[in-house]
Specification:
By secondary structure, the chain is mainly α. Helix content is 76%, strand content 0%. The protein has 16 helices and no strands. The longest helix has 33 residues. The chain is globular, with a radius of gyration of 22 Å. The two termini are 40 Å apart. The C terminus is likely disordered.
Length: 434
């Protein structure tokens, strides 16, 4: 996307602005769409998200003006907001309906993240390789002239393929996600229930100490991802000398990164067992990612095989750590919410990541090239990791899934509300909280 926008005549600051449009759209719609999913069901919201994403991919592939690309990012952000929580909420709802509220979640969440990362690795490699192959292939002269004068560039092919995949995904959602029966609802009831659910989600993020830690580290992760997604493609193109070959190099790096995410996600339950708690596992995982960002920053200062090797290692470490952190964070989050507010809680988490990513993208796009943007992202991620160094305790992963206990309040903060009041949806039957 970064290289395609560059081929459309956009500079790095304009590209950063377009990504900010995406992130701010997601931020504006996260809570309303999360509440909508909790009100009317997961499947309908996911299907509508797929339709918007298909439209966004088509517009991104064919749009040649700034405003067309702005609209593409708005549609993409809207689809992202709609899809940020319903699928995972559907999974947790289904598991708890079958196995009870104390069902073990971490392993399933880790496997889901592993599958997502593996698909991202394959898709990124194919998407980055297609423009390079088209650039090499001997095309008919009429086709070559059409590409040169029309809106379809070699870099347009991946989003066109993405639109086809999005259409298949939408059909799959409609046929493969059975939901338990819901109480009959009306448009008025949905509109009345969404704001209340949004307020409950915001209340959870401010009153629950553990959820605040999840949100702060998620925001820091958004900063790290914004730095990589904005800076790495241009750096790849500089190394290869052409946008098509740069896309292939970055696709290879991104593929390796997503493979590392898959490995980290798969290892998340084992890391929690080895460290003694999910909280300590998050601290270790984010520390690995901070190390990777520092390597990416310092290797800008020189060139050669050693710099490339260390930069590749740093890139892998960032994604390995983020992959391992995700399932442990979300397991702790799900233990603090119930089904009536689960998608909203995930939307609050995504909101934190998107807002931080938008701000970081604008700041990084304005900074001079060199190690500073990378080191700034590393410092922010370190700040998001440090709260997990306090108050780590054994949880379900480390204690064989036994009933979880609410952590004691930290000395510097007053004791929080009861377990029932800490959950999204207000007072209700108390559940154990890690």
């Amino acid at each position: 996307m970064v290289l395609l926008m560059g081929e459309r005549g956009m500079g790095l600051s304009a590209v950063a602005g377009l990504f900010a449009v995406h992130s701010l759209t997601v931020a504006a719609l996260e809570l309303p769409t999360g509440g909508l999913s909790d009100a009317i069901g997961r499947r309908a919201v996911l299907a509508f998200a797929g339709v918007l994403s298909v439209a966004a991919m088509l517009l991104l592939a064919l749009g040649t003006t700034l405003w067309a690309l702005v609209l593409a990012m708005v549609l993409m952000g809207s689809g992202r907001a709609l899809s940020s929580g319903p699928a995972e909420a559907w999974y947790v709802d289904t598991v708890q309906a079958r196995s009870g509220s104390d069902a073990e979640l971490r392993t399933g969440l880790a496997r889901g993240n592993t599958a997502s990362a593996a698909a991202l690795a394959l898709g990124t490699l194919c998407g980055g390789g297609l423009p390079w192959l088209l650039d090499l292939a001997p095309l008919p002269s009429a086709w070559t002239a059409s590409i040169a004068s029309g809106p379809v560039l070699p870099l347009s092919i991946p989003p066109l393929v993405g639109a086809v995949v999005g259409l298949v995904h939408t059909v799959y959602v409609l046929t493969a996600l059975p939901e338990p029966p819901r109480a009959p609802t009306t448009v008025r009831g949905v509109l009345r229930g969404v704001p209340a659910t949004m307020l409950d989600g915001l209340r959870l993020g401010t009153r629950n100490l553990l959820v605040r830690r999840v949100l702060s580290s998620t925001a820091a992760m958004g900063t790290a991802l914004a730095a990589i997604e904005l800076l790495a493609p241009g750096r790849s193109a500089e190394l290869t000398g052409a946008p098509e070959s740069g896309a292939l190099l970055f696709a290879s790096l991104a593929c390796a990164g997503f493979v590392c995410t898959a490995l980290g996600s798969h290892a998340a339950p084992a890391v929690a067992r080895l460290t003694g708690s999910g909280e300590r596992a998050i601290l270790v995982a984010l520390g690995v990612s901070v190390t990777g960002l520092l390597l990416l920053g310092v290797t800008v200062l020189w060139s050669g095989p050693s710099a490339l090797g260390l930069a590749a290692a740093g890139y892998a470490l960032v994604y390995l750590g983020l992959g391992s952190s995700g399932p442990n964070q979300n397991t702790l989050l799900h233990r603090n919410v119930d089904s009536t507010g689960r998608a909203t809680a995930l939307s609050v988490q995504s909101l934190a990541q998107q807002l931080a990513g938008a701000l970081a993208g604008l700041v990084i796009g304005a900074l001079p090239s060199g190690p500073l943007p990378w080191l700034l992202a590393g410092a922010v991620l370190l700040a998001g990791a440090l709260p997990w160094a306090r108050g780590g305790r054994r949880d379900g992963a480390a204690s064989g899934g036994r009933p979880l206990r609410q952590p004691e309040a930290e000395p510097s903060e007053p004791s929080g509300p009861s377990e029932a009041d800490d959950k999204v949806g207000g007072p209700g039957p108390a559940q154990s909280i890690p």
